Automatic annotation (TrEMBL):
Name this polypeptide is given: Cytochrome oxidase assembly
Alphabetized Pfam families for the sequence: Coa1
Any one biological process term the GO annotation gives: mitochondrial respiratory chain complex IV assembly
Domain of life: Eukaryota
GO cellular component: mitochondrial inner membrane
Lineage, opening ranks: Eukaryota, Fungi, Dikarya, Ascomycota, Pezizomycotina
InterPro entries: Coa1, Coa1_fungi
Provenance organism: Coccidioides immitis H538.4
């Protein structure tokens, strides 16, 4: 006996149903982005939302601090260069061996601060030296000033002022005309070497 199986025809999906099915099948739920107080992230997820970009320009706030740090660093470098120069070393040696300076300052003459601040200018190439810094001894403390100039490139430096101003305002002239210029050859030699090397 032959039996015939009849299949009921089904309805095929329309184009609209196909689009809805595709949109539903590819839709994903995204995990919210971590907030500032959400704690550490223990796992990485591919379906996590990207955090919102901060619109505030924080670098504008830190730019003045960066410029101030650069300025302070440059001043510290230039001051260290002046404090370690032969001009400062020569004036300190002359100050320690000067009877007049030891009369007012005492023995063991050295910088007043651990990190001395050398004010003024040291420009041996153009013949201009005008510096001042604080010194101290076993008796008192004072501010020493040294000024020397050079008229021409091949000449020697000529000391115009070498003085010591005490804390009470007393001015002590350390340069004695009868003794001559104690810095003429010591400072002029290095200046001539720099001028010769720059030619």
């Amino acid at each position: 006996m032959n039996s015939t199986l009849f299949l009921r025809p089904g309805r095929l999906p329309t184009n609209a149903n196909r689009i809805r099915y595709r949109a539903w099948s590819f839709r994903r739920t995204l995990i919210a982005a971590p907030g500032p107080r959400s704690g550490p992230l223990l796992s990485r997820r591919a379906d996590r939302e990207l955090p919102s970009i901060d619109s505030h320009r924080r670098w504008i706030r830190t730019l003045p601090l960066f410029a101030a740090a650069i300025g302070v660093s440059m001043l510290a470098i230039f001051n260290y260069q002046k404090s370690s120069s032969s001009v400062v070393n020569s004036t300190m040696y002359a100050l320690r061996t000067s009877p007049k300076a030891r009369e007012f300052l005492g023995d063991e003459i050295y910088f007043a601060q651990k990190i001395p601040w050398i004010g003024g200018e040291i420009n041996q190439l153009h013949g201009r030296i005008d510096i001042s810094f604080w010194v101290k001894g076993t008796r008192a403390k004072g501010k020493m000033r040294f000024k020397s100039t050079r008229e021409n490139r091949m000449g020697f430096f000529r000391t115009e002022d070498w003085s010591l101003e005490m804390e009470d305002g007393t001015m002590v002239r350390l340069l004695n005309a009868s003794d001559g210029d104690p810095f003429q050859h010591s400072i002029g030699t290095e200046a001539d070497q720099q001028a010769t090397s720059s030619i």
